[in-house]
Design goal:
By secondary structure, this protein is mostly helical. The protein has one domain. The chain is built from two helices and no strands. It is rod-shaped.
Length: 61
């Protein structure tokens, strides 16, 4: 759900703010970099959250 929403919002942004090709290329490059960072962050977050949930489950049992 989240991923789809992000993609839609980006398309909407591209459509609403009609930019030149160069600007689009720049923005795409930036978004790719952001995506990479987000992906690494997400992996780290998932690892952390998994640890957290494991702790909770251990406490519950």
């Amino acid at each position: 759900m989240r991923r789809i929403n992000r993609r839609n919002s980006r398309c909407f942004f591209m459509h609403t703010h009609k930019t030149t090709l160069q600007q689009k290329k720049k923005s795409v490059r930036i978004t790719v970099e952001i995506r990479r960072k987000r992906a690494s962050n997400r992996v780290q977050f998932l690892k952390k959250s998994c640890r957290y949930t494991n702790k909770i489950s251990i406490q519950r049992t």
